[in-house]
Amino acid sequence: MQKIETVQELSVAAAALRAAGQRLALVPTMGALHAGHLSLVREARGRGYAVVLSDFVNPVQFGPSEDFAKYPRTVAADAAWCEKEGVALFFSPPVEEMFPRGFSTYLAEDRVSKPLCGVSRLALYRGVLTCWLKLLHLVQPAAVMMGEKDPQQVAVVRKAVLDLSIPIEILTCPTVRDADGLAVSARNTYLTPSQREEALAVWRALSRVKEMVDGGVRSPDRIVAEATHILAAKRRLRVIYIAVVHRDTMEALREVVPGQSLFAIAYWVDEVRLTDNLPL
Ligand code: AMP
Q1: 184 lines ligand 1 (CB under 6 A)
Q2: Does residue 175 line the site of ligand 1, with CB under 6 A?
Q3: Atom of ligand 1 lying closest to residue 175 CA
């Protein structure tokens, strides 16, 4: 595995792999690698791709009052893990490499990025897309791996790919959960045991939603009401949004259409902001 910290080296190393006949899959991450990231690496390797993993806490996607400074950073352990998993290129640049002083060009998507997380995190998808596109140009992969843990991110990227005719395949992997049901996330490390206990109400709500939809319920109002009721029992948990939306557009639905719908939630447990979802 080659460890790389500059954009110049990344572009040269990726070009060399492509010239040697390798098909590249890019796995963009913010590091603090966990089982969710690992599933993306393994899926890509299983499909025969040489994996380029970026490990970069992207400052452009954080708002001023968000957790950029305290976001977990475990680059050395991440690199060791990637080496073991057969990653070809491990890219962990300093901020100035990706966003040098005076950087002023951004990519924004104006529709799919607006609801849900876009309402309260104004910088998020503009930051994600800008960083993503820069990595894409540097690596020129055949595929990009993304987790269903962040369905709006997937939908926004897919829309950008469609709108700008970007020749890339987007491959997704299901949300990886811990044994207790909590979706694995770098931000789970912020949780105390009692906060984690509060967050688990979300898994109970998701399980109940699944049960309802499997049992034939199609009304988003009923689903949201039931989930809200389950979450209301937790005093330290505050819902930011809870919605049944279309998987591609993120627009609210009047009726669940199995295979096309998504139950999405963002919430605070005290000062920790988390998201979760369930494809319906
Ligand atoms: P992040 O490091 O949080 O920016 O995530 C990098 C990639 O890993 C994104 O495509 C995420 O959707 C994906 N990811 C994060 N957590 C999970 C999870 N629990 N299961 C599956 N994919 C995940």
Answers
A1: yes
A2: yes
A3: 20
Q: Do residues 85 and 38 lie in contact, with contact meaning Cβ atoms separated by under 8 Å?
A: yes
| Confidence (pLDDT) at 91 | 99
The second-level CATH assignment, the architecture, of 2-173 is: 3-Layer(aba) Sandwich (3.40)
Ligand 1, atom 15: nearest CA belongs to which residue? 36
| Ligand 1, atom 12, residue with closest C-alpha | 147
* Token couple for 249: 């557009």
* pLDDT per residue as tens digits for the range 213-261: 999 999 999 999 999 999 999 999 999 999 999 999 999 999 999 999 9
> Is 137 annotated in the active site?
no
Residue range 120-142, pLDDT digits in tens: 999 999 999 999 999 999 999 99
Question: Distance between CA 53 and CA 82 in Å, rounded?
Answer: 8
CA dihedral (95, 105, 109, 221) in degrees, to 10, reads 40
Q: CA torsion angle for 153, 159, 163, 164 (degrees, to 10)?
A: 30
| CA nearest to 117, candidates 3, 264, 272, 254 | 264
H helix count then E strand count, the chain: 9, 9
Q: Give the homologous superfamily in CATH for domain 186-279.
A: Pantoate-beta-alanine ligase, C-terminal domain (3.30.1300.10)
Q: Enumerate residue ranges in the chain where pLDDT < 70.
A: none
b/e sequence 205-223, b meaning 16+ C-beta within 10 Å: bbeebeebbeeeebebeeb
Domain ranges of the chain: 2-173, 186-279
